[in-house]
Specification:
The chain has 289 residues and is α/β, with parallel strands linked by helices. It folds into two domains: 9-106 and 256-288, Rossmann fold (3-Layer(aba) Sandwich); 110-252, NAD(P)-binding Rossmann-like Domain (Rossmann fold). 38% of the residues lie in helices and 20% in strands. It has helices at 23-34, 50-59, 84-89, 108-118, 135-146, 159-170, 185-191, 219-222, 239-246, 255-270, 276-287, and strands spanning 9-15, 38-44, 64-67, 81-82, 94-98, 101-105, 127-131, 151-155, 179-183, 197-201, 225-230, 250-252. The strands form two sheets. The chain has a six-stranded mixed β-sheet with strand order 2-1-3-5-6-4, sandwiched between helices. A six-stranded parallel β-sheet has the order 9-8-7-10-11-12, sandwiched between helices. A hairpin with a 2-residue loop joins strand 5 (94-98) and strand 6 (101-105). Helix 1 (23-34) packs across helix 10, helix 1 (23-34) packs across helix 11 (276-287) and helix 10 (255-270) crosses helix 11 (276-287). The two termini are 16 Å apart. The structure holds NADP nicotinamide-adenine-dinucleotide phosphate.
């Protein structure tokens, strides 16, 4: 247990619920390994107290905060500044203390991107299919546009929602080079070429305890996929990942995305750079927690 003193800087997570979070493992281990006098805790905040919590955190000289479900959009109104990527995505998961207030960032998407780079999966000029059209799928879409994917297909149970995020995303895309489509899973299966797509599973389907489900259980879908990312990390191997692997593709879960969103937040708070070796060490600790 770390010695906490009068000089210890405090960081923390706000959300509701927060009891399940792995973020304290990430930040307290980073602080310990890098010899930084910092301590990280989790704060469950009620719905009508979000603005008070942010004002209070600033008044208490708190160095930085993470924000989780359901407040990632709500907190934007309480910030003094916002990073352009977070503004585009419309969700903030990291608050950095600045003169006059907190500045908001989104480190979830840079976190996913860094996890993909770590795995050797390059998005530039690739064809990508996203399963889902919720808050996280929308953010993934913005990241794919920014990182130069050439074709993005959105497949969602409610096709209207897929169309909505497609329309919005087109405002940011390079229309001459990038195509974005919203289609049914049947259309995707009949039109897409085999083994050409990176699939990103951004729905909540397959998460513990409902581990026997995937948003798409038709094996023909997986014939199109050469690599699959499930943003879920519990269970370690989802049905989606299993089906990607059974069809010969590589599959990854969302634990590294979670780790790297934390690492990027930590780097923003402290100015330190976290090495891949240290990231690996923390990943092992998270796996065993
Ligand atoms: P959300 O806004 O509630 O969206 C949920 C999505 O799941 C929608 O597209 C919804 O489709 C789809 N869906 C839900 N139940 C379904 C079902 N039975 N069959 C087919 N589709 C279904 O959620 P979100 O905030 O985007 O989060 C999505 C997931 O991302 C979370 O569950 C979490 O696992 C993951 N996540 C991971 C990290 C990480 O660090 N690894 C960080 C954040 C989130 P409809 O539009 O048809 O309802």
């Amino acid at each position: 247990m770390k010695d906490i003193s009068g000089t210890t800087r405090i960081c923390g997570l706000i959300g509701n619920p927060v009891e399940h979070t792995k973020s304290p493992i990430i930040h307290n281990t980073l602080a310990e390994e890098l010899g930084i006098d910092l301590c990280y805790g989790a704060f469950r905040v009620d719905d009508d107290k979000v603005e008070d919590a942010i004002k209070g955190a600033y008044a208490l000289n708190i160095l930085g905060m993470n924000v989780t479900v359901p407040y990632k959009s709500r907190v934007i109104a309480s910030l003094s500044d916002i990073d352009p990527l977070a503004k585009k995505i419309g969700a903030v998961n990291t608050l950095v203390r600045t003169e006059g207030g907190f500045k908001g960032y989104n480190t979830d998407m840079p976190g996913l991107y860094r996890a993909m780079c770590y795995d050797g999966v390059d998005i530039r000029n690739e064809k990508v299919v996203i399963l889902g059209a919720g808050g996280v799928a929308r953010a993934v879409l913005m990241m794919l546009i920014e990182k130069g994917a050439k074709e993005i297909v959105i497949v969602n149970r409610t096709i209207e929602k897929a169309r909505e995020i497609m329309e919005e995303a087109y405002k940011f895309a390079d229309r001459e080079r990038q195509s974005i489509k919203a289609v049914s899973v049947e259309e995707f299966i009949s039109d897409a070429s085999d083994k050409e797509y990176i699939a990103i599973q951004a729905t909540s389907v397959g998460m513990y305890p409902n581990v026997d489900c995937s948003p798409c259980e038709d094996p023909s879908f997986y014939e199109k996929v050469k690599a699959g990312y499930d943003l879920i990390f519990n269970p370690e191997e989802t049905l989606f990942m299993k089906m990607v692997r059974e069809s010969g593709g590589k599959a990854y879960n969302g634990l590294k995305m979670l780790l790297y969103q934390g690492i990027i937040a930590f780097e923003l708070w402290t100015g330190e750079k976290v090495s891949d070796d240290l990231a690996d060490k923390i990943l092992q600790k998270m796996k065993h927690s």
